[in-house]
Every structure is written in C-alpha cells, then in structure tokens.
Prior knowledge:
By secondary structure, the chain is an alpha/beta fold. 42% of the residues lie in helices and 14% in strands.
Amino acid sequence: MEFINLKKQYELLRPNLSVRVDEIMAGAHFIGGPEVGELEERLADYVGRSHCLGCGNGTEALQLAYMAYGIGAGDAVFCPAMTFIASVEPAVMLGATPVFCDIEPDTFNLSPSSLVEQIEIVEREGKLRPRAVVAVDFLGNPARFDEISKICADHGLLLIEDAAQGTGASYKGSRCGSFGDIACTSFFPSKPLGCYGDGGAVFTDDNEIAGLIASLKVHGKGSSKYDNVRVGMNSRLDTIQAAVLLAKMDLLDTEMDKRQEVAARYWKAFEGKIQTPRITEDSTSSFAQFVLIAESEEQRDHVVASMKKVGVPSLVYYPKPLHQMKAFGGHVVQSFPNAEHYARCNFGIPFSPYITEEEQDEVVSAVLAAL
C-alpha cells in the first residue's frame, strides 16, 4: 500500500517544472545556472536571512558552517544525543570532539538543562575549549531557541541551527533557518522541502561568513575557481535541483497547512492511547516525520510487526542514539535516558500532505488494533 504518494505532488509540479527543466537543458547551464541564484534569494527571503548559499547536501552545509568558523582540534561541540550523525559528524572530521546532551522526553529536542550540565562539565575539566552548540529541529519540531541562545551567550558559544528537517516550521513567529549564528538545511527528497536528488543550503546574516562559505564551497576560490586562496571543497547545488525546489516552493505553504491537518487527525485518534509528539510551545512543526512512542521496545516491535501484516509501513527514526555509536565510542562517559528510551520505543507512521483521510484511518486502525 502506497501512503506517501509523491506522484500526486509531481502532477501539481509538472507544468512549472517542465518549463524550467526544458530551459536548463536548452541552455546547458547545469552548474551554477540562474535558477540557483533565484532559489537562494527566494529562500533567504522566505526564512528571513540576509544570505542563503546552496550546496551539495545537508551534511556539507554543516561542514561549511564548521569550516567557516574554524572549528577543529581541541574544540567541544555540544549536540543532542538523538539526531542523525550528520549533525556533528563534519565537526569530528575537522578534529573537534562531540559532547552529547540528553533530549526532552516529549519534544525529542535538545534539553536546555542537559546542555548546561554538559557545558559545565567541560568547563570544569578544562581539557577542551567549549566552542559550539548544534541545535536540531528534530523531525521538524523547532528547538527551544530562546533558552538555548541565552545559554550560548552566557558561555560564549557559537549556535548552529540544524534545520535539515525544519523548512517550513516556525518558532515564536520566526521560521526555522533563521536562528543561531548560522543555520543549515537539507533538500534530501524526504525532507519537507526536498529535491529529486541531493541538495542543501547555509543561511547567515554575516556578510563576511557568507563570502567565506561562497569561497569554501568552490575549492576555496578567490576571484575565480582557478584562483584558490584557501583549501575548500566541492559542494554545489545543481541547477536542475534548484529548478525542482523553485517549483516545490510554490506548494510549500499549502503543504504546511495540510501537514497540520494530518497531524491534528493523528493526535485526536491516538489521544490517551499512545505517546504522540509534543510541539514546542509557540511553534509550528513541519512534521518531517510523525513518530509515536511505545511503552517499551517489546510493545514497539509488536505494533510494527502487526502493522506490517496488514500492509501498513513504518520506520524507526532513529534506532540508536549517537552516544552509543561505535564511531563515537571514545567520547562518552555517561548515559542519556531520554534519548535511549526514544531509540528503543519510537516508530514513525505514514505521514504526508498527500495522505488521504482513508489512508490515515487505515494507519490508525492498524496501530490501535495492535495496541
């Protein structure tokens, strides 16, 4: 059974997208075409930032941010224990040390109290320089940026917003991507604003940082790509993917409204029966995924197996917290119970602005029958 029917979206995109792609093919401007600049301007205006710089993918967007601020050996980067590895992986590749924090048990986002605790531990030990916090809009739910921003200011830390799942979401009237010193997003196909391949972007209000990232993402270019003034990387957003995203932006607000309607139906159906996500106060989630939390790993596995038997898909987002990853085994000295409980008990259910009410009813029936 196909719940997430991208064909429905493509039928809406086809007229606009076909014209754009035909123009790109005719002009053979596949890298750095005018559509890339148009998308960057439009996204900067949508998010509320001075600069948007497209790049190869969301991981590289974060890498560019870490590189631009000189994150490296001896630096501590604070990160929620429950997120995708890309949130902190580029910092580790540059030599920094990840310092994990627990999440809140209901919003699944970085816990401000745990963040303070981990910062104070690093400060007391004196082995690392506290440098940056990466706050993730987890599953599209905005982090607590007022509290986290104050913590960063109090401790002199850079704040990076990982808005890979947050495009279209908002916190206290401002859109995700507009928070922190710098923000990064992903256009992976499953994201709320996704292209038909890989893509990403960096958002900043700092003219100097924007210029530095523009250089870094094209091999550290100076006046041209053959005038290399620093060591950089190759991270460019393809013109065709920019065209896809421009066409999808025309649908974004309508899709966000529909996502709220779908979430509201799920909340009502599951109220009092199983834990549903709680959205951060004064916020709107983009609902990149809609995740339920079972009482135990055994109950989660039973529900997932029962759903599969009746043809209703599910997927775990994510099955292991970062502090338990082999890749980070040398950096962890404690456990984070909320992140661990989430990993054991979460399962995502079919969610899309194009899921029908009948399909939602099938999902609900499958879950409730298993419970």
